[in-house]
Amino acid sequence: MAVHDGPQAEGLIASRTGLDPGSELAALERRVIRCRRCPRLVEWRERVARERRAAFASEEYWGRPVPGFGDPDAAIYVLGLAPAAHGGNRTGRVFTGDRSGDWLYASMHRVGLASQPTSERPGDGLRLLGAFVGAAVRCAPPGNRPLPAERDNCLPYAAEELRLLPRVRVIVCLGQFAWDAAARLLAVRPRPRFGHGAEHETDGGLTMLGSFHPSQQNTFTGKLTEDMMDTVFSRARELAAS
How many CB atoms neighbour CB 197 within 10 A? Predict the structure, then answer.
């Protein structure tokens, strides 16, 4: 699973992010995919990649930290929790290859933030339009539950992405974990209350915008509907344009 500098790393980043390999943002994402700061997450992501799910037994899993993906001129930054074990950890692109990603990008497509409604694999033609997607934790965690120390190890990558995305005005936080991570990232005190559609404008001029996470637990039960998610992204576009 080792990733080296040079053409191999540049090719990996170009295929997973669509970024200019010579950009500062691409250089950051090359650092992300080499990260081994959290031994528990390294062991888990690589074990999942070796053992694989039966449905994907013939595929080569990514098994590394998952870089951010999207438009370097983004005004909207979407912050998720962490890659899915058989989604981003398999495909190497955030919210790609699982049902949460299908739900997310379908909504972004409906409101004009994505070129197509599906995200199956790198190289499938998906482009984000004025949006960039990252995660609070870049490795798939056991039980989809990162530890606080793992979050804190990883959040500097999101901070650096935001520094290199100077047009961002809105952070869409997918779920309570992402909302709390964004508050920590932006040093918001006291922490504002999370809810679907919750808004909080920071002293730095960024707006945190909450959404329920597009997990199957939420979408299958109707806690999160297509209209609810579309409303959040439509609001994000309004805030970004104001």
Answer: 12
